[in-house]
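To start, an entry.
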Amino acid sequence: MTRGQRIQHLTFCVELLYPGVHRLRVALPVVLAGGPVVNEIVRSYVHRAAGVVLIAVSLYHLWYVITTPDGRSLIKDMLPTEGRHRRA
Protein backbone atom coordinates (compact mmCIF):
# COMPACT_ATOMS: atom_id res chain seq x y z
CA MET A 1 0.00 0.00 0.00
CA THR A 2 1.41 3.37 -0.98
CA ARG A 3 1.72 6.35 1.33
CA GLY A 4 -1.19 8.10 -0.40
CA GLN A 5 -3.41 5.04 0.04
CA ARG A 6 -2.55 4.88 3.74
CA ILE A 7 -3.40 8.55 4.22
CA GLN A 8 -6.64 8.08 2.29
CA HIS A 9 -7.71 5.09 4.38
CA LEU A 10 -6.70 6.68 7.68
CA THR A 11 -8.71 9.82 6.87
CA PHE A 12 -11.69 7.71 5.84
CA CYS A 13 -11.55 5.66 9.07
CA VAL A 14 -11.25 8.73 11.28
CA GLU A 15 -14.20 10.37 9.54
CA LEU A 16 -16.31 7.24 9.90
CA LEU A 17 -15.53 6.89 13.62
CA TYR A 18 -15.98 10.59 14.44
CA PRO A 19 -19.81 10.63 14.85
CA GLY A 20 -19.80 7.80 17.40
CA VAL A 21 -16.94 9.19 19.44
CA HIS A 22 -18.37 12.69 19.30
CA ARG A 23 -21.77 11.44 20.46
CA LEU A 24 -20.14 9.82 23.48
CA ARG A 25 -18.33 13.06 24.29
CA VAL A 26 -21.62 14.94 24.18
CA ALA A 27 -23.73 12.36 26.04
CA LEU A 28 -21.39 11.49 28.91
CA PRO A 29 -21.05 15.00 30.40
CA VAL A 30 -24.84 15.35 30.36
CA VAL A 31 -25.21 12.10 32.29
CA LEU A 32 -22.33 12.68 34.71
CA ALA A 33 -22.44 16.44 35.30
CA GLY A 34 -26.05 17.23 34.49
CA GLY A 35 -25.34 19.64 31.61
CA PRO A 36 -23.66 19.90 28.23
CA VAL A 37 -20.01 20.96 28.13
CA VAL A 38 -19.69 21.69 24.41
CA ASN A 39 -21.36 24.74 22.91
CA GLU A 40 -24.16 23.53 20.60
CA ILE A 41 -23.18 25.92 17.78
CA VAL A 42 -19.55 24.77 17.81
CA ARG A 43 -20.63 21.15 17.91
CA SER A 44 -22.94 21.57 14.92
CA TYR A 45 -20.24 23.27 12.82
CA VAL A 46 -17.66 20.61 13.66
CA HIS A 47 -20.18 17.89 12.85
CA ARG A 48 -21.01 19.50 9.49
CA ALA A 49 -17.33 19.93 8.67
CA ALA A 50 -16.74 16.25 9.43
CA GLY A 51 -19.59 15.36 7.08
CA VAL A 52 -18.12 17.50 4.30
CA VAL A 53 -14.70 15.89 4.78
CA LEU A 54 -16.27 12.42 4.71
CA ILE A 55 -18.05 13.19 1.43
CA ALA A 56 -14.86 14.68 -0.07
CA VAL A 57 -12.77 11.67 0.91
CA SER A 58 -15.43 9.32 -0.47
CA LEU A 59 -15.49 11.15 -3.80
CA TYR A 60 -11.68 11.16 -3.97
CA HIS A 61 -11.64 7.46 -3.20
CA LEU A 62 -14.13 6.78 -5.99
CA TRP A 63 -12.10 8.93 -8.41
CA TYR A 64 -8.90 7.13 -7.41
CA VAL A 65 -10.40 3.68 -7.95
CA ILE A 66 -11.83 4.60 -11.36
CA THR A 67 -8.97 6.61 -12.85
CA THR A 68 -5.68 5.17 -11.58
CA PRO A 69 -4.13 1.86 -12.58
CA ASP A 70 -3.39 1.02 -8.92
CA GLY A 71 -7.03 1.62 -7.98
CA ARG A 72 -8.35 -0.51 -10.81
CA SER A 73 -5.96 -3.33 -9.92
CA LEU A 74 -7.13 -3.21 -6.29
CA ILE A 75 -10.74 -3.58 -7.44
CA LYS A 76 -9.78 -6.48 -9.74
CA ASP A 77 -8.01 -8.16 -6.82
CA MET A 78 -11.20 -7.97 -4.73
CA LEU A 79 -13.50 -9.43 -7.39
CA PRO A 80 -14.38 -13.10 -6.98
CA THR A 81 -12.70 -15.51 -9.38
CA GLU A 82 -13.20 -19.17 -10.15
CA GLY A 83 -11.54 -21.32 -7.51
CA ARG A 84 -10.91 -18.49 -5.03
CA HIS A 85 -13.62 -19.74 -2.69
CA ARG A 86 -11.92 -23.14 -2.56
CA ARG A 87 -8.66 -21.65 -1.29
CA ALA A 88 -10.29 -20.00 1.72
